[in-house]
């Protein structure tokens, strides 16, 4: 007989929600509003991921434990992203003094707003099903201090017993301590908890190394699935609805949710 967990911890981006469109599209729209025209979203997106990798190597966990605040960490990353798409901006004193600070501040706040994100259709129904079965739910995410406000603006904050962004934990996944902190906050043992996330090293291996009873890897597309060859098929989820039968619970499938949404739109 399958033993139900007392806690399900969930990653945020890629598991509960995703950026609407692309980061490059969001940055290009913001730049247009400040008179910076013609930035190509695809180039901005490539620049973003290059800067993301670099900043996470040089200043992990949004600069925690260094002289950088997360606000300044993101400001530096945003500047590097713009420079990738249009190098001459990094040499403009006028842009740096008059435009960049206001533009970045707008972008920083834009990503706390619901309009910047797309919540996966199964997110809320699945979490409600978990809670109705007496299971606590946590968010354990490599995220900055905007996460609680973002969850509130998305209308999801009431669904969680624990919200633990890495900047509050002081460590980031896959460090076991972020999982240990979530377990303590939820007052459960690792053997009573499972974790779901979309990153093999940070989520799947991180949760297993922390001693959680089970970990699931979210693979929403073929590219992610190809990278998950070392993960047992039973530990792979294609969407959050797949978690319920994996835990021996009944609940709506993604197809059923999509059908209901379609009917609602036609009413």
TrEMBL record:
Keyword Zinc recorded: no
Matches recorded under InterPro entries: HAD-like_hydrolase_domain, HAD-like_sf, HAD-SF_hydro_IA, HAD-SF_hydro_IA_REG-2-like, HAD-SF_hydro_IA_REG-2-like_cap, HAD_sf
Protein's recorded name: HAD hydrolase, REG2-like, family IA subfamily protein
SUPFAM superfamilies, sorted: HAD-like
GO CC list: nucleus
Molecular function GO terms recorded: hydrolase activity
Alphabetized UniProt keyword annotations: Hydrolase
Lineage top rank: taxon: Eukaryota
UniProt keyword Transport present: no
